[in-house]
Design a protein that fits this description.
Elements lengths: L4 E5 L5 E4 L5 E6 L4 H10 L1 H17 L2 E2 L6 E4 L2 E8 L1 H7 L39 E2 L7 E4 L4 E5 L5 H37 L9 E5 L6 E3 L4 E5 L7 H13 L8 H10 L3 H11 L6 E2 L2
Parallel strand pairs: 1-3, 4-13, 6-9, 10-12
Antiparallel strand pairs: 2-3, 5-6, 7-8, 8-9, 11-12
Helix pairs in contact: 4-5, 5-6, 5-7
Bound molecules: zinc ion.
């Protein structure tokens, strides 16, 4: 029998999961004798093997990143090539896909070139010409140039680790715009839905963009929503699915049948989006190439 990690608690039944690193993790009731747990793990041998090969396949497909020039990163399902450039090069080229540092005015100190317009009905936040500038003193900027499909890193830290950090920051920055927008867009639909069944939903209290590995989003009873910035790499309809999912938790704080019905009323094709995320979510992780 294979080695496994055992966690005992007050629970009533046994559970087994394969961790992302392939380890077998077993949860068992406090009182259950060890030999019975061993037996359980043995019975699950076929299942364990199957799960592990699935995991292996997914990990093979996961894109390895060098975080160097030529590497590419997804925004809303589309790839953008990474290039390094000095700010001076920028000015000389005179490209207008982005604003050069010299044109940066006091009013835009927050680092945004153009505040994203609120989405018009039926339009997603990504269709607007979102161009974000990440400016930190001496750290160089990350410029997202939609026209030529590039991420341009100006000066600053261009080591793989530095690039990774800067890009993460950039995504979180983008998330702070995109998620509130999408919430604003879907909230009235969720509120209307609640009303139609004689309920009322709380308003959204706070939206936080998180750097998490395993969760796409969460919703607390206080109306705080959390979203994983990695969703910004997925196609917009996937991000929207998570937004709607969390908004429906304002109505039901569980995954009951009624909950899924609510999600389906807002996004009738949610099963498709949900299974995309299940199958491809792992591809949104950043694996460093070695
Ligand atoms: Zn949920």
């Amino acid at each position: 029998m294979e080695a496994y990690q055992l966690t005992r608690s007050k629970r009533k039944s046994l559970s087994i999961v394969i961790g992302r690193d392939g380890t077998i993790q077993v949860k068992a009731p406090n009182w259950l004798p060890k030999y019975q747990i061993d037996q359980f793990v043995c019975q699950k041998a076929g299942w364990i093997e199957e799960k592990r090969s699935e995991l292996h396949m997914l990990q093979q497909n996961k894109k390895a990143h060098t975080f160097q020039e030529g590497d590419s990163f997804l925004v809303s399902g589309e790839a953008y090539r990474l290039t390094f450039q000095s700010p001076a090069q920028h000015l000389a080229e005179g490209k207008n896909g982005y604003r050069s540092p010299a044109q940066f005015s006091g009013r835009e100190k927050d680092g945004f070139q153009n505040p994203v317009q609120h989405p018009v009905e039926g339009q997603d936040g990504f269709q607007n010409p979102v161009q974000l500038l990440e400016e930190e003193k001496g750290a160089g900027r990350v410029v997202w140039s939609r026209e030529d499909k590039r991420f341009i890193l100006e000066a600053g830290d261009t080591t793989p680790l530095g690039v990774k950090k800067r890009l993460e920051q950039w995504y979180i920055h983008l998330g702070k715009q995109v998620f509130p927008e999408r919430v604003r867009f879907y909230y009235p639909l969720a509120a209307r839905l609640a009303k139609s069944i004689g309920k009322e939903i709380d308003s959204v209290n706070r939206i936080t963009i998180r750097n998490q590995k395993t969760r796409w989003g969460s919703c607390s009873s206080k109306g705080n929503l959390n979203f994983n910035w990695r969703l910004l790499m997925a196609p917009a309809e996937i991000l929207d699915y998570v937004v709607v999912h969390e908004l429906c938790h304002l109505l039901y704080l569980n995954h009951s049948k009624q909950f899924w019905q609510a999600v389906g009323k807002i996004l009738p094709d949610y099963p498709k989006r949900r299974s995309w995320l299940k199958a491809n979510g792992i591809l949104l992780e950043w694996e460093e190439s070695r």
